[in-house]
Structure formats: structure tokens, C-alpha cells
Amino acid sequence: MIAVATIEHDAELMLRVREGDSQSFALLLAKHRAPVIHFLYRMIQNQAVAEELAQEVFLRVYRSRASYEPTAKFTTWLFRIASHVALNHIRDGKHERNQESLDQDSDEGMSRQVASTGPTVEQQMLREARFEEIRRTIQLLPAKQRAAVLMHKYEEMEYAQIAAALECSESAVKSSLFRAYETLRAKLAHMNR
Amino acid sequence: MNAKNNSCPMQNENAEILLSYCARTLEPEQVIQVEKHLLGCAECREWAAGQQAVWAAMDTWEPEPISADFDAALFARIAATEQPSAWERWTAPVRQFLQGGFGWRPMLSAGAVALTLVIALSIENPFRKEPPVGQSVKLEAHEIEQAERALEDLEMLRQLEAPEEETSL
Ligand SMILES: [Zn+2]
To answer: Which residues of A touch B81 (CB under 8 A)?
Structure first.
């Protein structure tokens, strides 16, 4: 249990939301909007779907305000909801259908970026090819391993936080991360060496 | 950290420290400790180089820009959920009366009895008109979804308060 004196700022804001302060909710949204959407984007790899799921996440945060208790770090609680929403989306099989539109999106993205000024066309194409390889390799990881890697790499979350977000033990997170990075090393290590 | 060992301990029990080294989250003293080990251990050097390459590759994956109307859409959805439901609108006068502050407890019991009777009658009433099938199904699906979400939220909160031990991801 977190003592009142050491309560983190986000949890304090959430407690104010519980009291009906919508301004505090806007502050929480401003701070966590990007990390949540970026996490969901990298999980699902479709920006429109990621934003739709992020709406669901923040809606759940808002709806849970009455029962909110600061028993864990706010970010952990938030990413628990985000992981839950993403894993449910993948489990329900909505994911494969999104992949079709993703491929269209990335083709458009490539032509748009290649056409822009800056680095040469060859450099741009090389960069796009690398990006594509990273994207596809991460996509091949099992969903929970992928979530663990994304939280570890991009959100810089500790093992205990990831464990709480994914509802498993810390040792399970560690072994999962090691397996995931092993796969990534086997497939991506050649890229920057 | 025995550099002469063929299967280096750092790749087993202490691989965690090597991963943290590659993630640059170690304290300076630990960095020195790891770098000393790396000088004498080819296996760990290979591991670290691969991990750093993965890290660098992942750094190049920039997220997409977020839609400008994200917040507006969210606030609109919140406002929609904040609208009182049909049930809340119908029962508002009763709830206001119950919150009036006088003798509400017996009234609540009487109300519960009356409500039970109304439900029982509406279920048993042979003259009750059935709503069109599509409408009924739509309403049920909506209610089930709402109830499922509420249960999921509750379950999540419950588990967050008492994290359970589970081993496989
Ligand atoms: Zn070693």
C-alpha cells in the first residue's frame, strides 16, 4: 500500500479525477496519450486501430475513477489496461484483418517518404527496408512477449512493473524478455554491425 | 563472472546485468564491472554486440503522428457515456425521493418488494407484447457488452490489488 505522503503525482491526479475534477483527467491524458498510443501502435502496427484502442483505454480509466485506489504506480495500472485491451484485440482475431490495411498504409508511407527531399532515394529505400524488417520481426513475436519487449524497450519499465501490467510473475517476464531478445538478436543483429 | 568459463555465467544467471548494460540502465560502478568482464569474455562480447545492434535497430522505429482530434473524440465519447441512461432517467424521481432523508429505509424495502412484483408480473404476463426480435437482440447485446466491460474493469482492479503468481507468458 502506498502511503499518502509518498503518493506519486499521477495517482494524486487520478484521485482528483475520482473527486470529479475533469482538469486532472485532461492533465493525465496529455502526459500519457503518446506513450499509450505508441505502445498500441507497435503492438497492433496500425495507427488508426491503435488510436481507437487508446480511446478505449482512456475511457476505461475514466470509468474506473470511482473505484480507483493508488495501490500501484499509475503507469503500471494504465499499461495493464492498455495491454489487456491490445491482447484482447489480438486474441479476438481482429488483428489479421488490420494487417491488410497495414500493408497498404506502409506502401503509401514508403512512397511518401521516398518522394520527400533530404537523404538520397537509395538511403531512404534502405532505411525503409530496415524499418520493414524490424516491424515484421517484432510482429512475429508472441503477443505477450511483444508487449513485454515494447514496455521494456520503449517505456523503460522495470521487470516488476511489466509483470504487474501483464499479470504474471517477475521471473516469467525476465525469461520471456530473454527469449524475445534472443529471437530479435538472431534476426536483427546483422543490421547495425 | 568467470571469463574463462566456456558457458559464461553472465549469459545465464547474470545475463540480466548484461541486458541492463546494453539498455544503459546500470550504475557507473556496475558498468565498469561489466566492461572488465567483457574484455576477457568473447561470448559476452558477442551477446552484448548483438543486443546493442537490436537496441539500435529498434531505436529507428519512430511512432506515427497522433490524430489532432484524438482528445476531442475521447471527450465526446466520455460525454456520451456521462449522459443518464433511460433507466436512470425513469428512476430519477424515485431516487430523488429516496435521497430525501426521511424514513427511506422502509421505503427502500417496500420499493424492492414492489419492483420484484413488477418484474415477476412482466415475466409471467401472458398478454405482454413481445418486442420485435431484432430490437430485443440489439438491446441484449448492448447490455451484455456493458456488463462484460464492467466485469473486466472490476477484475483488472481486483488483480492489480493482489497480483497473482503465474509463470508462463
Ligand atoms: Zn561472459
So the answer is: 59, 62-63
